[in-house]
Amino acid sequence: MTQEAVPEDIRKLARALGLDRLSESDLQQFAKAARVAETRRSVLQTGALVPSDEPAHVYRPR
Amino acid sequence: MTDPAFLGVAEAAELIRTKSLSPVEYAEALIARVEQHDGALNAFLRFTPDIALADARRAETEIMAGGWRGPMHGVPYGLKDIIDYAGLPTTGHSAILKDNLVSSDAVVTRKLRAAGGVFMGKLSTHEFALGGPCFDLPWPPARNPWNRDHFCGGSSSGSGTATAAGFLPVAIGTDTGGSIRNPASMCGVAGMKPTYGTVSRRGVFPLAYSLDHVGPLTRTVRDNAIVLNLIAGYDPHDPGSAVQPGWDCEALLGRGVEGVRIGVIRHFYTEDMTADPEMSAGIEQALAQLVALGAVVREVKTQPLQQYAACNRTLLMAEAYAVHEKWLRERPQDYGELTRGRLFPGAFVSGAEYVNAMRMRVRLADGFHRLFDDVDVIVTASAHDPACRIDDPQAVEYTYARQARAPFNLTGSPALAVPTGFSTGGLPLGMQIVGRPHGEAMVYRVGEAYEAATGWAQRRPPLPV
Fold it and tell me: pTM (2 decimals)?
């Protein structure tokens, strides 16, 4: 199967994250993960949140 | 007497208490069964017959001296290999941790040992409870006892396989997006993801802190309740720990479902994501059975399944990436390919996205919990498809996301997977019964009544030799 070239911005991001030991096929996976993340981002409808919506996991002093 | 391989916890406990069953003979029978069949199923990553026999001999001596401790005394169990057992490695089914010898027990292990359980070994998982089924790890993936060419679900894969195959009456698994209930549904056993915080996570390797749950897989609902009662409890050192005073998940067993109000979320499996027709039919037949038993069933609606799934995955990916970031930088080649591919999306979740997903989680959970103003439990799908072939990566990838379990990791609700029959191909079908937070007793009540009326728990897989 022909693999797409890994975009340069994805290579730069991997390096910036410290992922500088990835093989070329790992980088292919990393590029695919960017697309997966983008798809997920477009599904979750966070537009209706208002500033008073608190997150679920909050710090509790012990 | 029932074949020792298929004795349940309750039945075995009574035989052991009355000295009609020797824990040593019981352990020997299960050891022989594992030795005969597990070469084809790979349920065990680390089989420990020596420990099992030592535990069984100790239990037998204590019981013969009048020191019966309770229902797990002399009863075999296994642990998913992300759960610590002192003196053995906890590998996470990964080359990364293959020599990770641990010196203390997880809290859940400590409770089972204190109860006199007989430890049979560490059970296969997906790599770090995430990447699987994989064939590029140090150990092979577990296979489905109903048809070894098929996937057994995951990530508590060995837990589901071992329980269904009659290797153990109980296995402990973990569940972050459905990983107890998936193998339970694929293997035709009962699997409970209890309310978030019910069982301590201390000594369990994390996948995603805010979504991780520990719970039992058993062949019957009653056994599941017995074991959960034993392993539950507040742990001040687990920041998510939350158990209500007086909580007793066996309290409503045996009461039937006369008058119980059941809501069904059909849109999860008929509109949002259409389930396999046999899976849907199994749920509808189960609902008809519950009505015949006296329950009142009505349809209820919540947000689309995709909203819950996207929220769960955003949180899971971000938290899992945080756990694995150092190893992904330093030794990425030591992960299986599938695991790396499932971890990488976490690198693309921004801080704001994570916080917003946590805010969405509250909205989704609040809306879901309001459904219980009008119903006592909710029924919906578990898996949307029967188990696919284990050697078909595209089918695994397709079915991996086709499930309705992740919503209840977000809401923290107790959710029990129970079998609803078999496909025409002979593979198990299943559904979920979901309760209010800390409402495990009602969930088990409904599950037990349904199970008793159907007999699915009495079916046995035709094991390969």
Answer: 0.97
